[in-house]
TrEMBL record:
GO molecular function: phosphatidylcholine lysophospholipase activity; phospholipase A2 activity; retinyl-palmitate esterase activity
Disordered as annotated region, ranges: 950-976
Signal as UniProt keyword: yes
GO biological process, one term: phospholipid metabolic process
Signal peptide start-end: 1-18
Keyword Signal: yes
Pfam families: Lipase_GDSL
Natural source organism: Macrostomum lignano
Record's keyword terms, sorted: Signal
Top-level taxonomy: Eukaryota, Metazoa, Spiralia, Lophotrochozoa, Platyhelminthes
GO cellular component, one term: brush border membrane
SUPFAM superfamilies: SGNH hydrolase
Comp. bias intervals (Polar residues): 955-972
Identification of the protein by name: Triacylglycerol lipase
Length: 1321
């Protein structure tokens, strides 16, 4: 110890710090001595303080260190900073207490609170030695301290107290969170994001119980700052401190505040870039020791460059995900609550003196803030709070001034400038409009919100803009509103409507046989374009009016001859249509009827609108909720210009899910987003358009900051549109006959015609953004035409002046066409092509036109009336029967099996668990089931396992004649890999990969894991005897390693690199990935860095089977999150790897498979797959089908995202062969010889076919035709002389193509070159 400390002191006083070996020795010593430092997670609260005391005590044993550690007395009454900027802002309160967070002035704040870690607890703020780090100087904390006045020290609390002596909640003095001095500062040293929900609850408890707080009326300012310790712990546990977990805990905390705190403005400060401690620590050895042992080893002393890059990446991801959360609109559902991201820490660094960071901003540990650091942070936060959203500073400005709320100066000058521009000035650079926009933004709080105002706030903002502009006499006349007529004249060029819309002879039960005349009720959801703001406006004052009677999708103020709307079209032949809006008014006005659109709303409001619409439908006596057919049109996205495509589609999905779950007999139109980027040109119609769009309506589209931002706006529009199509096309809403969702793309490319080279403004209101009556007319006609057009042939733009399309279809042998739904509908009614993933709709229609409609309904499956306990084996398909050989008759609802299942569930605790059983627990449950069944004499013989396992056939399962030679030299790229180059094989998954029951002749054999026969990795027999992927590769490569043999659990030597575990689900896969990497690294037969590894992952069957028990835990989001986490781990840790990810099998087919025997029904219903085998009802059956499709689709999206294409020596490929796989039928019944005795797991024959299908998928360049097992299909042979493994469904990059050609032409005879060149061309 003495030697270490002497070395440390020598380093501290002047020794070279080139490699910091002395500090590393000291760090290692301290870590060995102090248990808290060996914990995977940073100590928190009292444990943090205890660890710091122990470090100091150890260092204090040295006389040399004693003087350095000796604490000079810290003064709580510190002197003012010499260079602190003066504060001269006037912070008056509002004339009356505001009710909206978007109209809040700084002077209105009554209460202040804070949450966070030691940076908010202010550890070491006045420290002059490391002993002072133990003290929490809360009175000087940047966001909440109030020990001294503003003239001596800057904090947010001191700024607000400057003119509001009644402010409450600021902390004073020093002490822990439990001390009375902390007041509403609930931050604690060492805390991480996972502690924030607890801090939120503690803060709410204090607010509610403190007599100094009027909980319901006082305005509260709360600042949350967390993440430094998460980053510093990231390299210890990347899963625990992932961005997903970080944001999950922040979201949980903000959700709690949002649900429980009235009148609150919440600042969320982005995490500081703690990677700068790597440079800061060099200020002293004591900094290096403290940071390396305790404070931030990840940031201060990264193991290597890769870890350093990871730290930078996770900081950026924390910051970006935080912005996404706040920008999502999640916390904009109440007027009296808002959350704002304050980004001033994002790029903050202290200034440099002589090339080194100025240490005066930091405490003696070079990590925590000194008083000066707290001072600068407070000023930066204040300035961020004043700066408009989108223009906030992202770093400190040391010694810079305080920013003040904008005053009223220069108003007249600006208004005169606007007038000049409006009447005749040049619009070349729009500077006058920009000045006006900035002025209005400074004056009107709603315009400074990061999110567009919504509802009454939107209208309020428009009123304020008009009021400000109205101060000028010149503007008064321009703004004066000519009276708008609600009974408008018909448009001269409106197209005539001549279609006949008869009702069906009887009310249809399917949305896919619905005629337009069958619609009884109409509804609409959206924003101001559906509320029809300004439709009849002749000035900008008219924009305040919602002319709902003229709304394109639902208006019904006048007849179709006067104005086209979708409602008017339907009313033409159906006077009883209900729900159309009339007149003008807000959503609360009775004229709105079933038009629930609200101006300013964004996608995040759609779930709420869906709930409101359903409530109206259910409570309105004019609606027969269960019997009436409803047409609902949803159009949203124009205001979402600031939000990600993920959030946009998440909210749309949530709204559609709610309608799907709650509304019978509904046809839902979803209109794609209009290209709002055209407002950049439209706005030039007048200065007033420029000012309105730049201040309130669409600043992103009208005034992009630069070309990059303009491209971003274009990109996000395209992404919104494509993601919306994906959602609708996913089949998510095709699970009920009486409900469908159809994407209507007519807005995608819609633009008004041009006159003299400029857009015709007559299609727009005076703001050049909302539709005029003419614009509503064209939009309605385009929507109607889209509804009639078949899927795949829909128009994507307006056709001004064009005709209405009418329903006609003589080919379908019905008098009137149905409304056009999706191709999936055509498949259902015109014959499904079950053997192909890609369906040709036109061929099906053509075929269907030759026969009556009744003959092309869904085919019926043969049902077997009686059931026998039997087990069919491969080869002979012999049926083994029970001792009594007695038929056990079951009803169609399998009541006998249900009784047995219920009995077993009551007897065996494991079967009552909500979570799937895994590993030993799974095997144990199966043993208990067998034991219970064995109590019956009749069952005992059936369960007996006296027969030996099925002998392995000496005959080949299928001929394999491919030549798999290795590359001349070991490739360095996964994209030039040949099958013969594979050195190591591995597998991850569940009991299908562990090969449970592969050789079983009774259900007792299901407990045995026949890993040597596993389709993807088994190597027990030769390829001539049994097909597995491993056998194919080792047939010509005796050096292949990793394949499993024999039988046994994952812990047995037989498993080798097969880490699959029975019962595992997706959440176990990250653990499997870590175990596999550990095995690869520790196995002496694996050259970890040089060997090429082939890894196959199949997981999801158990997730689907558990879905009906817990839809949240086994959602597609969670499924894909765990898969991503596992693949991320492999990507980060495994060199030279080709990863197959097989899509999940359609386990819903077990519903029919189980009917092979009662024992199958009992096993599947009690343990294996009750969701699939015994769905409670049709809805649950549809849910299971839907989640399977969603798992498959999301898996493809993940792999296709390019996330794993960043390294040449690593790739991930989706193999879809199981997507549509089903065993062949014999006499109408599935051939059970492919399955084990439980009718769920694969038999040896099933493993054989699956192994072959995987091999063929790996060689197929386009897997659209390879998404199922094709029984007895021959082996695929590598193309040309040698094949590279197919890694993407796209062409090779040019460099890879050239390299491949080099290899190819070195081996192909010259005589074949002409042929090859022709093929290449």
């Amino acid at each position: 110890m003495k030697l270490l400390l002497i070395a440390l002191v020598a380093c501290f006083v002047g020794a070279s710090v080139a490699d910091h070996q002395h500090e590393r020795d000291a760090i290692n010593y301290l870590t060995g001595r102090i248990p808290e430092l060996r914990s995977k997670h940073s100590p928190s609260g009292s444990a943090w303080t205890s660890a710091m005391y122990k470090i100091v005590r150890e260092l204090d044993e040295s006389a040399e260190f004693r003087d350095i550690l000796a604490a000079k007395p810290e003064k709580l009454e510190a002197e003012p900073l010499a260079d602190s900027a003066p504060f001269s802002c006037q912070l008056d309160r509002s004339p009356s207490r505001p009710t909206s967070a978007h109209r809040l002035r700084p002077g209105d704040i009554d209460v202040i609170g804070a949450m966070g870690d030691s940076l908010t607890a202010a550890n070491g703020a006045l420290a002059t030695s490391i002993l002072g780090l133990l003290t929490e100087y809360r009175g000087y904390a940047w966001s909440i301290g109030g020990q001294v006045s503003l003239s001596k020290h800057t904090t947010i609390a001191n700024v607000l107290r400057h003119q509001n002596s009644n402010l409450y909640g600021h902390s004073t003095g020093s002490g822990k969170v439990s001390s009375s001095n902390s007041v509403l500062n609930v931050a604690e040293p060492g805390k991480v994001a996972s502690d924030m929900p607890g801090q939120a609850k503690e803060l709410v408890r204090r607010l509610q119980s403190d007599s100094n707080v009027n909980f319901n009326k006082d305005w509260k300012l709360i600042t949350l700052f967390i993440g430094g310790n998460d980053v510093c712990d990231y390299c210890k546990d990347k899963n625990e401190f992932s961005a997903d977990n970080y944001i999950r805990y922040i979201r949980e905390a903000l959700d709690y505040l949002h649900a429980n705190v009235p009148r609150a403005f919440v600042n969320v400060a982005e995490v500081l870039d703690v990677s700068l401690v790597k440079d800061l620590k060099d200020g002293s050895s004591i900094c290096r020791v403290l940071q390396g042992s305790f404070l931030c080893k990840c940031g201060a002393m990264p193991e290597n460059e890769a870890e350093e890059r990871e730290i930078q990446a996770i900081i950026g991801e924390y910051q970006a995900r935080l912005r996404q959360l706040v920008d999502s609109g999640r916390y904009d559902t109440r007027e009296d609550f808002t959350v704002v991201t304050q980004p001033f820490f994002r790029n903050s660094k202290p200034p440099k003196i002589n090339g080194k960071y100025d240490q005066s901003y930091f405490a003696p540990d070079c990590f925590h803030f000194s008083r000066k650091g707290h001072d600068e942070s407070a000023k930066a936060l204040w300035n961020n709070m004043i700066e408009p959203v989108g223009q906030k500073s992202t770093s400190w400005t040391p010694n810079g001034p305080f920013k003040c709320p904008t005053n009223k100066a220069n108003m007249k000058v600006l208004i005169i400038a606007i007038i000049a521009c409006f009447v005749n000035a040049s619009l070349a650079d729009h500077q006058h409009e920009r000045d006006a926009i900035n002025y209005l933004t400074g004056r009107i709080p709603e315009l400074r919100s990061k999110h567009s105002p919504s509802g009454s706030a939107w209208t309020s903002a428009m009123y304020k803009i008009v009021r400000e502009l109205d101060e000028s006499a010149e503007f008064r006349d321009i703004l004066a509103a000519k009276p708008e007529k609600l009974e408008a004249e018909p448009l001269a060029d409106s197209a005539p409507f001549s279609c006949q819309l008869d009702r069906s002879p009887s009310r249809p039960t399917s949305a896919h046989r619905l005629r337009p005349g069958d619609i009884d009720v109409i509804g609409a959801m959206g924003d101001s374009l559906t509320a029809a703001n300004g439709a009849l406006a002749t000035s900008i004052l008219g924009l305040l009016t919602e002319y709902r009677g003229y709304a394109w999708s639902i208006g019904g103020q006048v007849s179709l001859s006067q104005h086209t709307t979708l409602a008017n079209v339907l009313r033409q032949n159906n006077n009883n249509l209900y729900g159309h809006s009339t007149g003008s008014g807000s959503v609360h006005n009775r004229n709105s009827v079933l038009n629930v659109a609200v101006p300013g709303n964004v996608a995040s409001h759609m779930p709420g609108q869906a709930k409101l619409l359903v409530s109206k439908l259910q409570s309105d006596p004019n609606v027969n909720f269960n019997n009436d057919w409803k047409l609902i049109t949803l159009f949203i996205g124009g205001n979402d210009r600031e939000f990600s495509a993920d959030n946009y589609i998440k909210h749309i999905r949530e709204a559609l899910d709610y309608l799907h779950a709650n509304v019978p007999k509904a046809f839902v139109n979803v209109a794609e987003l209009l290209d709002v980027s055209l407002v950049k040109e439209l706005k030039d119609g007048s200065s007033i358009c420029n000012v309105l769009q730049g201040s309130l309506l669409c600043r992103c589209g009208a005034f992009p900051e630069n070309e990059a931002e303009e491209r971003e706006v274009q990109a996000i529009i395209g992404e919104y549109q494509s993601r919306l199509r994906q959602l609708v096309d996913s089949g998510r809403y095709d699970t009920r006959e009486d409900f469908t969702v159809v994407n209507q793309p007519f807005f995608k490319n819609s633009k008004p015609p041009r006159i003299n080279g400029k857009y015709d403004q007559s299609y727009f209101a005076p703001d050049c953004f909302h539709f005029s009556r003419k614009g509503h007319d064209e939009s309605a006609k385009a929507l109607w035409n889209n509804m009639i057009e078949p899927v795949g042939q829909k128009s994507t733009s307006w056709t001004p002046g064009g005709p209405f399309k009418c329903p006609t279809s003589p080919r379908l042998l019905i008098e009137k066409i149905f409304l056009s739904t999706t191709e999936r509908t055509v498949r259902r009614y015109l014959g499904r092509r079950r053997d192909h993933a890609v369906f040709n709709a036109s061929t099906a229609i053509s075929d269907a036109s030759k026969r009556p409609i009744d003959l092309v309904e869904q085919p019926k499956f043969q049902r077997i009336p009686t059931w026998i306990l039997r087990y069919q084996r491969s080869s002979s398909n012999e049926a083994y029967q029970s001792q009594a050989n007695q038929d056990v008759h079951l009803s169609n609802y399998h009541q006998h099996e249900r009784d047995a299942i219920n009995y077993l569930t009551s007897r065996i605790p494991e079967l009552r668990s909500k979570q799937p059983l895994a590993g030993a627990a799974w095997t144990n449950a199966l043993f208990k089931i067998v034991k219970e069944l064995d109590s019956s004499v009749q069952f005992r013989d059936v369960l007996a396992t006296n027969k030996p396992a099925e002998p392995v056939s000496a005959e080949p399962t299928s001929s394999f004649n491919c030549q798999l030679t290795r590359s001349p030299t070991k490739p360095t790229s996964a994209h030039r890999l040949r099958p013969g180059d594979i050195d190591v094989i591995a597998a991850m998954g569940d009991s299908l990969t562990a090969a449970n029951g592969a050789l079983a002749t009774s259900i007792l054999g299901l407990t045995t894991e026949y890993r040597g026969y596993a389709w993807s990795i088994g190597g027990e027999a030769s390829l001539r005897q049994h097909t597995t992927l491993a056998n194919i590769l080792k047939d010509q490569n005796s050096r292949l390693y990793g394949y499993s043999t024999g039988k046994g659990a994952i812990s047995s030597s037989a498993a080798v690199l097969n880490v699959a575990v029975p019962g595992n689900v997706a959440s176990h896969v990250p653990g499997q990935a870590r175990l596999l990497v550990e095995k690869l690294k520790s196995d002496s037969r694996v050259n970890f860095n040089n060997d090429w590894k082939l890894i196959t992952l199949l997981i999801g069957g158990n997730d689907v089977c558990a879905y009906c028990k817990d839809k949240r835990a086994f959602s597609a989001d969670n499924y894909i999150r765990y898969i991503r986490e596992a693949l991320d781990y492999l990507h980060a840790n495994v060199p030279r790897a080709f990863v197959n990810v097989a899509e999940v099998l359609d386990v819903s087919l077990v519903k029919e498979l189980k009917d092979a025997s009662a024992i199958c029904g009992v096993l599947q219903g009690s343990l294996l797959c009750k969701c699939g085998a015994f769905p409670e009802n049709e809805a649950e059956e549809r849910d299971v089908k839907t989640i399977i499709g969603e798992y498959q689709a999301r898996l493809r999206q993940l792999v296709d995202s390019g996330r794993y294409d960043t390294r040449e020596d690593f790739t991930v490929v989706t193999q879809p062969f199981l997507r549509n796989s089903k065993p062949p039928r014999i006499n109408g019944v599935y051939d059970q010889s492919y399955l084990a005795p439980d009718c769920f797991h694969f038999s040896r024959k099933g493993h054989d076919e699956t192994g072959k299908a995987l091999w063929n998928n790996m060689l197929e360049p386009d897997r659209s035709e390879g998404d199922r097992v094709e029984y007895w299909r021959p082996f695929q042979v590598p193309d040309f002389v040698e094949a590279v493994l197919c890694y993407q469904e796209e062409l090779m990059r040019p460099t890879q193509l050239m390299a491949f050609c080099d290899d190819f032409f070195s081996q192909v005879p010259i005589s074949t070159w002409n042929f090859v060149l022709v093929v290449a061309v």
